[in-house]
Amino acid sequence: MRAISIVKHEDKVKFLQICRNKEQEGFICVKPMQHIHSWYEAVYVKKVVK
């Protein structure tokens, strides 16, 4: 089972801070940062052990 986290934010600096926090929590980026309309977005996945 996997936990999926989609990170979105309008401010690039805050977005990068959130991404670093996700990586420290053990998430792996599967869809790198993209600028979509007026926000930045990335997708993270974490393998959850049952």
Briefly characterize the structure.
With 50 residues, the chain is an alpha+beta fold. The protein has one helix at residues 12-24, and strands at 2-9, 28-36, 39-47.
Strand-residue proportion: over 45%
Tally of discrete structural domains = 1
Series of H and E elements: EHEE
The backbone outline, from C-alpha atoms, is elongated
The residue fraction in helices comes out at 25-40%
| Number of helical segments with 4 or more residues | 1
Q: What kind of sheet is the major sheet?
A: 3 strands, antiparallel
Q: What is the CA-based Rg, rounded?
A: 11 Å
What's the total number of strands? 3
Show unreliable segments: none
Account of the protein in words:
The chain is α+β, with helices and mostly antiparallel strands and 50 residues long. It has one domain. 26% of the residues lie in helices and 52% in strands. The chain contains 1 helix and 3 strands, in the order E-H-E-E. The protein has one helix at residues 12-24; strands at 2-9, 28-36, 39-47. Strands 1-3-2 form a 3-stranded antiparallel sheet, covered by helices on one side. The longest helix is centred in the middle third of the chain and has 13 residues, at 12-24. The protein is elongated. The termini are close together.
